[in-house]
Amino acid sequence: ADHSFNYPARPEDVDWRSLYPSMGDDQQVQFADIGCGYGGFLVTLGEMFPEKLAIGMEIRVKVSDYVIDRIAALRLKNANEATTYQNIACIRTNAMKYLPNYFQKSQLEKMFFLYPDPHFKRAKHKWRIINQALLSEYAYVLRKGGLVYTMTDVEDLHTWIVSHMTQHPLFERLSDEEANADPITPKLYQSSEEGAKVVRNKGEHFLAIFRRI
Ligand code: SAM
C-alpha cells in the first residue's frame, strides 16, 4: 500500500551497499536530497561530486521507482565513462518521519529541500517538510558546519522557512555573498524538474542556505 513503509530500525541496519554496489568501505552517504522528485538535481550532484555519495528520498512510489530506474539506466549506459553514477541512489520513504532511522548523528554534510510542496493552511503546518520540530532532527543528522539548501517559487513558504530556520538556535543563514560563492547555487535554479519548470514559466525563485552551527 502507498502508506506502508519498510524502514530500518536504526542507521546500522541500512544496507547501503545494495544501493551503492561500488562504494568504499569507509564511505558514507553525505548528501541527502529530500523530496527528490524525478531526480534531476540528484543526477547533477552525482556529476558534480564523484567522490560523495548522495541519496534522494521520495515519498511517492511511482516517482521513486522512476528515479531508481533512471539511475540504473545511467549506470548501465555510462559504465565505461568517467562519470558512472555509482554515487547516487534513491529510496522511497517519508523523510519527515524516518530520517534518524537512516542517518547517524552528524553524518550528513548537505541536505537539499528543493521546491518542497507548500501547504498554506495553518492546520497543515505540522505537515510541512520544514517545521520547527523537524529542524532539530535535521540539526541532529547534519554535521557541524553542514548546510541546508532551500529553494522555492512560493514567497510565503520562503519567508516561513527563513523565519523558522533563523529562529532555531542551531542554524544560521548564509549571507548572499556566501550563498552566491557556492558552486551548487546556480544548479539549484534549474537542475531539478520543478526548478526547470519555474524557469520555463519565468517565475521567481527564492533561495536560502543555512549552516548548522
Ligand atoms: N525536489 C524536486 C524538484 O525540485 O523537482 C521535487 C519537487 S516536488 C514539488 C516535491 C516532492 O517532495 C514531491 O515529489 C513529493 O512527493 C515529495 N515529498 C513530499 N513530502 C515528502 C516526504 N515526507 N518525504 C519524502 N518526499 C516527500
TrEMBL record:
E.C. designation(s): 2.1.1.33
Keyword Transmembrane attached: no
Reaction catalyzed: guanosine(46) in tRNA + S-adenosyl-L-methionine = N(7)-methylguanosine(46) in tRNA + S-adenosyl-L-homocysteine
InterPro entries: SAM-dependent_MTases_sf (IPR029063), Trm8_euk (IPR025763), tRNA_(Gua-N-7)_MeTrfase_Trmb (IPR003358)
Enzyme class, spelled out: transferase
Pathways involved: tRNA modification; N(7)-methylguanine-tRNA biosynthesis
Origin superkingdom: Eukaryota
Pfam families cross-referenced by the UniProt entry: Methyltransf_4
PROSITE patterns (UniProt xref): SAM_MT_TRMB
Binding locations of S-adenosyl-L-methionine: G35, E58, I59, N94, A95, L114, S192, E193, E194
Role noted for this protein: Catalyzes the formation of N(7)-methylguanine at position 46 (m7G46) in tRNA.
PANTHER family registered for this protein in UniProt: 3-DEOXY-D-MANNO-OCTULOSONIC-ACID TRANSFERASE/TRNA GUANINE-N 7 - -METHYLTRANSFERASE (PTHR23417), TRNA (GUANINE-N(7)-)-METHYLTRANSFERASE (PTHR23417:SF16)
The protein's name in its UniProt record: tRNA (guanine-N(7)-)-methyltransferase
Organism field: Drosophila arizonae
Biological classification of the source: Eukaryota, Metazoa, Ecdysozoa, Arthropoda, Hexapoda
